[in-house]
Design goal:
8-stranded antiparallel β-barrel; alpha+beta; globular; 2 domains; 21% helix
Length: 187
């Protein structure tokens, strides 16, 4: 059974159990063929994420510090998200399920932060463990392009497939740094 089927089954059981109001829990049989027929393959895709989108150019606008990110789908179940900042980047990873116009990200809590020392032209990396979390992006069609949209209250961010970097280029950063290589092994 794939990670997507397991995640979907666990989420379904959780939702059903939260609504049972003291009645015996009956878990319906899940048609996994239906899940697979609506699954979206994002393997190898890298999305450039930012807070605005230019509707005419169909490009992401991310002109402020810490508002540009990369979201890379390594295979059919794992991802890495990098928040880009002038003073250093933050790297998170986890598993995902792209299903029926949504991408569900499970962030596993393993995080690496980098800090840029501009005076010495040196970058230090620190691995930390944070709480697991979940993020959901909606998948939209923007004039033939796949657009990701995250919305939380007043905050929104958008993602389009990157024109500036491929998955292999994205992974070069991880191959060249010891802490990031160790971080990747768990992805």
């Amino acid at each position: 059974m794939s990670i997507q089927k397991i995640v979907f089954s666990v989420l379904s059981a959780f939702l059903l159990s939260s609504c049972n109001q003291g009645k015996p829990l009956v878990i319906p049989k899940i048609n996994t063929n239906l899940i697979e027929s609506h699954q979206i393959d994002l393997s190898g895709a890298v999305f450039f994420i930012g807070p605005e989108i230019d509707p005419k150019q169909q490009e992401i606008i991310a002109e402020c510090d810490c508002c540009a990110s990369d979201l890379a789908f390594l295979d059919d179940s794992s991802f890495i998200y990098v928040e880009r900042c002038l003073g250093g980047d933050t790297y998170v990873k986890g598993s995902y399920l792209a299903f029926n116009d949504h991408v569900f990200l499970h962030i596993d809590g393993n995080t690496v932060s980098s800090e840029e020392d501009m005076m010495n032209e040196k970058t230090t990396y620190t691995a930390i463990k944070q709480e697991e979390s979940f993020v959901t992006y909606e998948i939209l069609n923007a004039t033939g392009k796949m657009l990701l949209r995250y919305k939380d209250g007043e905050y929104s961010e958008f993602g389009l497939k990157s024109k500036r970097i491929t998955l292999d280029g994205f992974l070069d950063e991880f191959r060249s740094e010891k802490t990031l290589r160790a971080f990747m092994k768990g992805a």
